[in-house]
Amino acid sequence: MASTVVKFKKKNKRTSPLKQTKTDRWINPSSGFGGEADPMSRTYFGRDFNITQSQLDSLYEEDWVAGRVIDIPAKDATRKWLDLTHDTDNSKIEKMTEEFTRLDVQAKFNEAIILSRLYGGCAMIIGAFDGQEVDQPLGTIQSVDWIENVDRFHAYPATFYQDPDDPRFGLPEMYTIQRLAVIGSHTMSVHESRIIRFEGNYLPPRLRIKNFGWSAPVFQKVREALRQFGVSIQSGASILQDFITMAMKIDNLSEMVRDDTGEAELRERMAIVASERSTHNIMLYGSDEEIEKMGSPVSGLKDLMDIFFDVVSAAAEIPKSRFFHNESGRLGGDAGENDLRTHYDNIAAFQVNQLSSRVTRIADIVAEPLGYLPGEIKHTWQPLWQLSESEIAKQYNDTATGDVAYITAGVLQPEEVAVFRFGGESLNLVGMSIDPKRREKIIKALNNAPIDEGEILNEPDDDPNPEPDDPDDEENNEDE
Fold it and tell me: In this structure, are residues 226 and 313 in contact, taking their beta carbons and an 8 Å threshold?
């Protein structure tokens, strides 16, 4: 009977995607640097799943560091708030300020920023009454009754603008809003003209489409840094629990553990020692025994944990001096004033680039029932960085020294400096700017009569509507 030889074909090993990709790099075959044995050549970025709403809720509610990642930029952006301005009519500013206070606009903006950072987006719904249903475009506003924020998990884009020639093409036209309350919820369709959107971390268009048009939660990028920071703090606490260890030396230990009876005696002896120490703070042991306290080494622990302070602070883009409410910015570290100034500069940029357009939008909506024109009410952001008393005094002194130098050199007149610095409601410390017409009036007045600074400040350059001369007055003057 003839034998049959069966040949098995060797299966190809599964090739790693990394091996299929050719990468130009420096390679040293002798040491393995740059080759397949090099850990760097086998390291790649693995995408984790998107963080869920439940995880976002837990992080914000229970982790104090995570909560500060969300809250600090929102609080700083709305802490000093803003000043409403008008070109000519201060009474309109007072009325708008009353409306902003009634609607609690400052607190609503703070909440909207928190929700947008936490969940990746927030819809600020304007309760404007215009005689139409809320699923219709906003018409002529008769009153603004309320403002409410809804996070992006309860504000779903339902329909989108589909006209390619419309600048709003691809943007949401209608939202399905679920307003939550203790006693229940209310679902309604709201037109986008009645909503002011707040965004979280920027996402490119393709990723934003996957996210139903919303941005990304801040925690999506900070999650790993928060995990490392939490592990480092918990590990440090565990080391402190085992900081002191009791070592007990027994000469006949090996003989005692040979049988169950000896092991039981050993455990009983250890229990007695522990009991006496905890009850009477006394340790009893025989001449053939020795008890020693052994401490766990913690050298370098502080420096190691400081690294994670730096990591979480950098990931959150908040300086340690602000993040951990410590003047030095770290536990025993150096001052962080420059970092704090940079942080406030970033917040000021966020106010201008992200919040100003939304403030203008809500100001125009609130102003319409009052009869004001769009854009009539403007706003300026109050500075976040406040000078100390010593810094203010130095600024006064430097300004005065510079003014004296210009007066001595004949560049400025003393009266000119007085008008510029002290002619307004408060001291003006900005750089001097020379008004040629005002300067001419000051010099002319100095040559003829004592100067009236208030008159020079308020006197118009040219009277567009001069009053005609009264001939009767002229006759009376001649008779006199």
Answer: no
The answer to whether residue 63 is domain-embedded is no
Confidence of residue 157 (pLDDT cuts 50, 70, 90): very high
**What is the pLDDT averaged over residues 436-446?**
72
428 domain residue, yes or no: yes
Average the pLDDT over 162-178 and give the result: 93
Tokens linked to 103 = 């609607």
The secondary structure element, H or E, covering residue 342 is helix 337-350
- The token pair at 218 is 């801040």
Instruction: Please check whether residue 265 lies inside any domain of the structure.
Output: no
Beta strands in 111-171 (DSSP E): 121-129, 143-151, 155-160
In the chain, the percentage of residues whose pLDDT exceeds 70 is 74
More confident residue, 247 or 364: 364
The parent domain of residue 448 ranges over 389-458
Yes or no: say if 176 and 158 are a contact pair by the CB < 8 Å rule: yes
Token pair 């393709």 is found at 206
Whether 194 contacts 128, CB under 8 Å: yes
C-alpha to C-alpha distance for 358 and 425, rounded to whole angstroms: 31
What element of type H or E holds 311? helix 301-316
**Better-predicted residue by pLDDT, 138 or 1:** 138
* Cβ atoms of residues 249 and 289 within 8 Å: yes
Residue in 2, 54, 13, 10 with CA at minimum distance from that of residue 36: 13
Question: 200-217 pLDDT, tens per residue?
Answer: 999 999 999 888 899 999
d(CA 77, CA 8): 71
Q: Residue 453 — left, alpha, or beta (φ > 0 → left; ψ -120 to 50 → alpha)?
A: alpha
At residue 197, the pLDDT reads 97
Which tokens hold the place of 454?
Answer: 């208030």
Note the pLDDT of residue 480: 45
Count of the separate structural domains present in the chain: 1
Q: Which amino acid is at 470?
A: D
Range among 76-85, 226-235, 320-329, 445-454 rated most confident: 76-85
Q: What is the mean pLDDT of the chain?
A: 80
Tell me 175's DSSP state.
Answer: E
**CA Rg, the chain, in Å?**
37
Q: Name the β-bridge partners of 405.
A: none
202 three-class SS: coil
As a whole number, mean pLDDT of residues 383-399 equals 81
Mean pLDDT confidence for 72-89: 93
Distance of alpha carbon 294 from alpha carbon 284, whole angstroms: 18
Query: How far is Cα 222 from Cα 314, in angstroms, rounded to an integer?
Result: 9
Torsions phi, psi for 381 (to 5 deg): -85, 135
Euclidean distance between CA atoms 278 and 284, whole angstroms: 12
Answer whether residue 418 is part of any domain: yes
